[in-house]
């Protein structure tokens, strides 16, 4: 492997070990069908940098040295998907739903109700944070335009870096909102109906 050039000679410059770790993480996420954004978040935590900085390093310097490995990882991902498509899927019910007694069903429904309300609250908090981040990005864009033509290049570079970091965090939080998947909980709750005698019955699909 050739020696990868460095963007900077500062004390926080990327080392060969940093580049190798970044590449290993990105390639693993590709093989497992994950996204580069997830890979940059994991690498940032391991290397003590921001996800945006890891993305810049990967796309600007490291990636071109791993073209063959990237192709191989994508091929492994494709094979994994093909194998999984031939495996029959079985509906997995929460353990508490395996109890067919009325008490067990009631306990399960109450637990799902609590989980649902917790997710609603988490989703509300994420929406508020997303709005705050969008406002921050808008403000940073205004500052960047204001100083773009000035001689303060250091301030401009820092502002642009902060803006990219904010956008990356915004994308992560929006994805977290998507993963809450409130509709799935609604679907689980609707699988039970009340009979005329007051008992609860699971609705067969």
From TrEMBL:
Claim: Coiled coil is one of the keywords in the record: yes
Task: List where this protein forms a coiled coil.
Answer: 109-150
Which keywords fit this entry according to its UniProt record?
A: Coiled coil
**InterPro entries documented for this protein:** Homeodomain-like_sf, RsfA-like
Q: Does the keyword Coiled coil apply?
A: yes
One of its Pfam families is Myb_DNA-bind_6
| Record protein name field | RsfA family transcriptional regulator
State the organism of origin. Collibacillus ludicampi
Q: What is the lineage of its organism?
A: Bacteria, Bacillati, Bacillota, Bacilli, Bacillales
């Amino acid at each position: 492997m050739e020696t990868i050039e460095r963007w900077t000679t500062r004390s926080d410059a990327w080392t060969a070990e940093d580049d190798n770790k970044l590449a290993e993480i990105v390639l693993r996420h590709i093989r497992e069908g994950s996204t580069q954004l997830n890979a940059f978040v994991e690498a940032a935590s391991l290397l003590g940098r921001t996800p945006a900085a890891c993305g810049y390093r990967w796309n600007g310097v490291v990636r071109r040295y791993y073209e063959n490995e990237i192709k191989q990882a994508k091929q492994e991902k494709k094979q994994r998907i093909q194998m999984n498509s031939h495996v029959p899927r079985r509906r997995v019910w929460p353990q508490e739903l395996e109890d067919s007694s009325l008490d067990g069903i009631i306990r399960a429904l109450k637990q799902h109700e609590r989980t649902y309300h917790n997710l609603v609250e988490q989703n509300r908090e994420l929406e508020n944070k997303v709005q705050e981040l969008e406002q921050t990005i808008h403000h940073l864009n205004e500052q960047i335009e204001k100083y773009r033509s000035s001689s303060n290049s250091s301030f401009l570079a820092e502002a642009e870096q902060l803006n990219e970091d904010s956008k990356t965090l915004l994308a992560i939080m929006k994805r977290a909102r998507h993963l809450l998947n409130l509709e799935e909980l609604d679907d689980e709750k609707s699988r039970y109906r009340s009979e005329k005698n007051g008992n609860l019955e699971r609705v067969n699909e």
